[in-house]
Design brief:
Elements (H helix, E strand, L loop, with lengths): L6 H38 L15 H8 L3 H15 L11 H14 L3 H8 L3 H16 L2 H4 L6 H15 L4 E11 L18 E8 L5 E9 L4 H7 L1 H7 L7 E3 L10 E2 L8 H27 L14 H20 L25 H14 L8 H19 L8 E2 L6 E2 L1
Parallel strand pairs: 1-4, 4-5
Antiparallel strand pairs: 1-2, 2-3, 6-7
Length: 417
């Protein structure tokens, strides 16, 4: 019955179908043309890269101010780690390894925000975040090279001589002490990172030499951990107990407890030799306090006055070790820096003292009897003052006039010689 439909109705239906078929290709054509136009615009748009930092264009004074390391120290370090900083990308504008290192050093030295350091280095914040991890991993490979105890008798004797020149304390091969580095802790375990100064931190143990070189570092314990516990859990304790340092002593604060290999000050001294011992101990132990002061002044990211770390505790511990390595490199290159006056003051020592051993007490009493019962051993600073005074006094005597003293004649205002 299809042929019974009027011809006019069929023609109208056919015209509508043709209009619909013609409309679809035109719409697709319009969309394709618009996409081609946008693609052409994207291809013509050139990326504008900021000017990246160049060490050769910075004078030495600005280098020391910005990075707290000399150009010689920076380039020596870069030669050791450059293979780990080479970019794997095949793009023509890959970030050079030296730029990654300079940005990381700027961050360590200033403690500024990542965005601020990245802008100064000519890279984006996300690029700097990746570069920082690369630099940290590369420098950590140098830990055994720059943080270690010497294994020869000559070097150990040199350490002993350095400490002896401070206050006459004999046979000392290291000073042990702890300091806190602030961080933002994980919320679920924040209480174990709260220290006795009521902020969250990592408790860092360091053993240093007389020239403030770091010989051993332990950076893995939360801020609530006692100093004496960190020492008991560290590998340096086992090495001293095994006699690896030819009977040399560590010096530590009273909270550690006196051991046969660790000497602490005498609590409530009653005799003059004990007072002399405590004075010499205090003068020598100040080295580790100054070491922490110089370390935090050189790398302000470690000091709480520059803000707390916002990384995970594991990454914060890695940054601490990296800063200790860089500190030793600076000591080797004679890059000196003064202790900053705005550092957070060190906290008080642990109230609970570790137990003293009988061997340690006997060792300390024998040392007091043999060394500090005789004439007082002056600290080196006092000897220096005496030497300066004698120098000027003798110099004054040499240049005094040899003519007789002047006399005054009565009735006149003239002086006769």
């Amino acid at each position: 019955m299809f042929w019974e439909i009027p011809y006019l109705i069929l023609r109208r239906l056919r015209s509508r179908l043709e209009e619909r078929d013609d409309a679809v290709p035109y719409e697709h054509y319009h969309r394709h043309r618009e996409s081609n136009r946008r693609e052409a615009l994207r291809r013509r748009r050139r990326r504008i890269f900021p000017v990246r930092v160049n060490l050769s264009e910075i004078n030495e004074h600005e280098i020391l101010t910005r990075y707290h390391l000399s150009s010689d120290a920076i380039m020596s370090l870069y030669e050791l780690i450059k293979d780990d900083l080479i970019s794997t990308t095949k793009r023509s504008n890959a970030v050079p390894g030296i730029v990654k290192l300079l940005c990381a050093l700027h961050y360590f030295a200033s403690g500024s925000l990542q965005s601020t350091v990245a802008e100064a280095g000519g890279i984006t914040q996300s690029t700097f975040s990746r570069a920082l991890s690369e630099v940290i991993s590369a420098i950590l490979k140098l830990t055994d090279k720059f943080i270690n105890y010497p294994d020869d008798d000559t070097s150990l004797q040199s350490i002993k001589d350095g400490f002896f020149r401070i206050a006459g304390f004999p046979n000392v091969v290291g000073i042990v002490g702890c300091s806190h580095v602030a961080l933002s802790p994980p919320a679920e375990i924040e209480q174990i990172y709260r220290n006795k100064m009521h902020y969250h931190s990592i408790n860092v143990q360091v053993v240093c030499a007389s020239d403030m070189k770091i010989l051993d570092v332990v950076a893995r314990f939360p801020g609530s951990t006692r100093n004496s516990y960190i020492l008991r859990q560290s590998g340096i304790r086992e090495r001293f107990e095994n006699g690896e340092f030819n009977g040399g002593w560590l010096l530590g604060e009273a909270s550690y407890g006196v051991k046969s290999w660790l000497l602490t000050p005498v609590r409530s001294p009653t005799t003059k030799p004990e007072v002399k011992y405590n004075i010499a101990h205090r003068s020598t132990h100040c080295v580790v306090e100054r070491t922490f002061g110089v370390l935090k002044s050189r790398f302000r990211c470690l000091d709480h006055s520059g803000g707390a770390f916002l990384y995970s505790p594991e990454k914060v511990c890695k940054i601490i070790v990296v800063c200790c390595i860089l500190h030793n490199i600076a000591i080797m290159k004679n890059n000196h820096i003064d202790v900053a006056p705005d550092l957070r003051p060190a906290g008080e020592s642990d109230e609970q003292a570790d137990s003293n051993t009988t061997e340690g007490k006997m060792q300390r009493e024998q040392l007091i009897t043999d060394v500090f019962s005789g004439n007082f051993i002056f600290p080196s600073a006092f000897i220096t003052l005496i030497s300066v005074f004698l120098f000027f006094f003798v110099d004054r005597l040499i240049y005094l006039p040899l003519s007789p003293s002047p006399t005054r004649v009565e009735g006149t205002e003239h002086i006769l010689y």
